[in-house]
Amino acid sequence: xxxxxxxxxxxxxxxxxxxxxxxxxxxxxxxxxxxxxxxxxxxxxxxxxxxxxxxxxxxxxxxxxxxxxxxxxxxxxxxxxxxxxxxxxxxxxxxxxxxxxxxxxxxxxxxxxxxxxxxxxxxxxxxxxxxxxxxxxxxxxxxxxxxxxxxxxxxx
Length: 156
Prior knowledge:
Helix content is 76%, strand content 0%. The chain is mainly α and 156 residues long. It is elongated, with a radius of gyration of 23 Å. Helix 2 (12-50) runs antiparallel to helix 4 and helix 2 (12-50) runs parallel beside helix 5 (122-151).
């Protein structure tokens, strides 16, 4: 009796390890993103504190609190989007280098490939970009509201 098995069945443990690594890298990247969001909050809060004297001038020209809050929201969003965009470009570039040149090698001889296999999927990049965008929006919104609370104003 012969048993025919596919490559997926023969190397099930290898593919399972690769799936765990993919989720592990995603979670580590998410942790880095959370830590970076503290930097964005600090930057926006310091910017708001630095520009507080100009709020009076903006108010005299007719700007209300909501308008000023939107300025800082968009500025913080710009910081986050530029950082996220640079991270995605750098990440995709490193994945392509690994895919075509095999820079990081696997030391064990028992695997089918010599270098760490990388498969760049558009859905994965899009999912990570969506998570980064959501984190940026939440972070900046909290930074702007935190400044409103520090100033004694009520959020509108």
